[in-house]
Amino acid sequence: MAGRTTACARDAVLVALLGSIAAAWGSWRPSFWYDELATLSVARRSRVDLDRVLDNVDVVHGLYYVGMRYWFAVFGASEFSARVPSILAVGAAAGGVVVLGCMLADRRLGVLAGVVFLLLPRVTWAAVEARSYAPSAAVAVWLTVLLLVACESGRLRWWLLYAAALALSVVLFLYTIALVPAHLITLAWRGDLRRRGPAWAAAVVAGSAAASPLVLEAFAQAGQTSWIPPLDRNLPRIVWEYQWFVGAPWFAAAFTVLVVAGTVAAVRRRTPVRRHGVLAVAVPWIVLPMAMLVAYSLVATPVYLDRYLTFTTPAVALVGGAAVAAVAVRTWATVGVTGALVLLTVPSFVAQRSAWSDPSGMDFSTVNHDVAGRLEPGDCVLFGGAAWNPASQRLVITAGPETFAGTRDPGLGRTAAAEGWLWDENLPFQTVAARLSTCDVVWFFADAERTTEQRIYHTSNQWWTLPPHRFESTPEYAGLVQAGFRIDERRQYNVSQAIRFVR
């Protein structure tokens, strides 16, 4: 038994290391997008300013922001360094999946499940997202490992660790609270409810009580999710494809076929009962959180987004690993099935690591890096609005404030740090026009040129309509010309442009 445990631990470490290395590939390429810049905006503030914004918004991300604040202080906030915590979390989650598979079945299933986890498009996406989605998957895995260990041993220390891990997971990502009813069903399915139910309930009460201040504050800030669209007829596709296989419909189709084939094969071969432990853990983990978010969105207010269920990907991987183990009994078949999944995930993996892979092709980092070294001390910078941008083009500064060191910012209003907001206030051009008399050079960051209307569909079930846009037809251009400026240089990017004006 000790030898098997050691071997499983070795497998878990190896899969975690290889998974992190693979997940890191190309992670520095995608431009920061809106949500990631919220991380940078908040996590680079002082503790006083960080606490102020959490009192107003985003308390559900508070622990993640605090952790990232110290991470940035040591490693900086480049595209790569900002995503390394997510990359490491993917590795930690993959290792946990291997441990779970080994505990529930055997080493082979554990390794297969860990590999499937690393191939899931939602996981490869989370690895290059400077948000708390990948960490939420990691804490969900290890919370479930603690549940199984506590059930096997019955010792108080494991239940105390389970309670602490539950509190940590909820504070890190609120929706992981849905694992509580999922674990309850797992206990019942495994026949542990009568024997371990009281201890589990006490641990849940303790963990929930520890996390309750954040939960109450999160409900007080519930209005910040008002932008989430209601569910509609697109829900089946969102659940089937976007939720776990974002950007990879062929992978979704192959995975579905694989699970069906694995189920048939397991029934025909009368797979040992111990293999069914995978289903006892994975099925409630998959179904309950999704059902809870969907039901709440239908009867109360929309809270369901496909990426919010990233913490269920380990359960999907367990089912996938069990399916591969059932279908591919021989080594050559295992290699073939796994290889096919690798090939099917490559297109989405590569696409996720392209320069403008994030929603709407946001290009904040691209613009920031391009003007670095061309901005001169004393240059004035202005930021316009954009049809695709929920805030303003001022987020180009957030992608790298050092790029704008020494420039003047006459359009800056109240600061986010002082007000407890996510974003600095961008004053309307009419207000700042009179302040341009001392500027010899003005850099204006604007929406890109569009000759026709464009419509973009997001996996969050939102349509963004981008109307035609010509900068020379805007009041900002007319105001700058009236103030004596002319265009000296102009650069178009993906959805943005930078225009240099001189007198």
Q: How would you sum up this structure, described in words?
A:
There is one protein chain. This protein is an alpha+beta fold and 503 residues long. It has 2 domains: 2-28 and 78-352, no CATH class; 359-502, no CATH class. Helices cover 60% and strands 7% of the residues. It is built from 21 helices and 6 strands. It has helices at residues 2-24, 34-43, 47-56, 62-75, 79-104, 107-119, 121-126, 133-153, 156-172, 179-190, 193-220, 235-245, 249-269, 277-299, 313-327, 331-352, 364-371, 395-398, 416-419, 429-432, 475-482, and strands spanning 380-383, 441-447, 454-458, 462-466, 486-492, 496-502. It has a 4-stranded mixed β-sheet with strand order 1-2-6-5, covered by helices on one side. A two-stranded antiparallel ribbon has the order 3-4. Helix 5 packs antiparallel against helix 6 (107-119). The protein is elongated. The N and C termini lie far apart (79 Å). The chain crosses the membrane at residues 12-28, 80-102, 109-127, 133-151, 158-185, 242-266, 278-299.
Describe the structure concisely.
With 503 residues, the chain is of the alpha+beta class.
Task: Summarize the helices and strands and which ones pair or pack.
Blueprint: H1 2-24, H2 34-43, H3 47-56, H4 62-75, H5 79-104, H6 107-119, H7 121-126, H8 133-153, H9 156-172, H10 179-190, H11 193-220, H12 235-245, H13 249-269, H14 277-299, H15 313-327, H16 331-352, H17 364-371, E1 380-383, H18 395-398, H19 416-419, H20 429-432, E2 441-447, E3 454-458, E4 462-466, H21 475-482, E5 486-492, E6 496-502
Parallel strand pairs: 1-2
Antiparallel strand pairs: 2-6, 3-4, 5-6
